[in-house]
From TrEMBL:
Protein name per UniProt: Uncharacterized protein
Amino acid sequence: MTTRERAHARANNRRAAQFTELWIAGPAEDLAVMIDAANRTGRLVFVSAPTPMGGDDTRHRRYLRLRTR
């Protein structure tokens, strides 16, 4: 591995370590509280639109991307 390739790999690892991505599921009211808390702390980077779980399940799921630092 060349020096340039090592530097590129290290930079990519640092960028990836800055965020955590997760799916959350629950009632719409609970999701709103969690998203509001993440937004107030400044960690919220991206949030998807609510998606129904389907079937008889009344919960919704959302994808979140949060800053780790």
